[in-house]
Amino acid sequence: xxxxxxxxxxxxxxxxxxxxxxxxxxxxxxxxxxxxxxxxxxxxxxxxxxxxxxxxxxxxxxxxxxxxxxxxxxxxxxxxxxxxxxxxxxxxxxxxxxxxxxxxxxxxxxxxxxxxxxxxxxxxxxxxxxxxxxxxxxxxxxxxxxxxxxxxxxxxxxxxxxxxxxxxxxxxxxxxxxxxxxxxxxxxxxxxxxxxxxxxxxxxxxxxxxxxxxxxxxxxxxxxxxxxxxxxxxxxxxxxxxxxxxxxxxxxxxxxxxxxxxxxxxxxxxxxxxxxxxxxxxxxxxxxxxxxxxxxxxxxxxxxxxxxxxxxxxxxx
Length: 317
Hints:
By secondary structure, the protein is α/β, with parallel strands linked by helices. It has nine helices and 14 strands.
């Protein structure tokens, strides 16, 4: 198995979690980090013991010994960052949300396919053991047929207009930041074809969505998904079936999940709290690249495109 050497674009906080995950995965190394500010890249490299750092992305991407790039910039830069990676023949793991609209998603995947490059949105939550357990419960019929689902996810962000959450220039807003979780994770768990989607947004003074409600009509199940960045939300998710219920807190960081029967009695409790949930997605990237795959079975291109379609629907693009 080939050792996959990563470069990082963007020296922000989330990239530290990625570095920690890579250190825990066999067959992966971070060999370089790049930022628009050389000093920021230097400080990051020293803290993470990365041998090379750069004050521009192109200089790092020009290295032949880098196999893949982890993109950890703000949402508004992802598309152009990925275009640059593809131009330099690099495989890509890009932070969620990967793109802001369907057109950009389809373009990136098309270009990558032409160059035989692997691309995956960093929807790390799908890989968590607890999400996999919930999916298996549904697949095995433990709650019968899923009929209804509810999700609440959110937090109170700093409402400074320059904060990335409230800044439209940085693709701020609840849907791009956390709505992507509730939609892509629930779609994966339910596993049914989407028949219809309705959206309602509440806008902040800056114009970004401070809260959103998405109602998804699947083949058999209806899901009500809510996200918010203007209030501290009690984060819970429920899936109600004909024969039972599944409950789990914090959809974007599931600590445990509970299976109930039709009388609301606890049947099974599953707990698995990995110290770093990014480990599983890093393993997936390494395995897929080594096996010559261009997309992941857990977060395939079509699912990222489907979420980008939701963004178009929300913002009338």
